[in-house]
Amino acid sequence: MNDLICEAVLKFVAAKSEVHARDLEKTLERLRAYTQADPDFEKAIAEFAEAEVEYDDPLEGEPREVKGPVRTQVEALLTDG
Asked: Structural domain boundaries of the chain?
């Protein structure tokens, strides 16, 4: 029974691997074509900059400093002393 399950798993993994390998090859071909069309990514940079200006990003926030318990205690010791 275990041998049968192992064989089934191996066949499943092999089949999935072939599908994913083909997908990766297609992606690589598209990436190569893209980089040949815009080798310095000038168009991509311009489109990114335009999108940054044009669209409001609700997830964009301001950086904030996160203080852990050790830092909090050290700062308390330094300011109290």
From this structure: 2-80
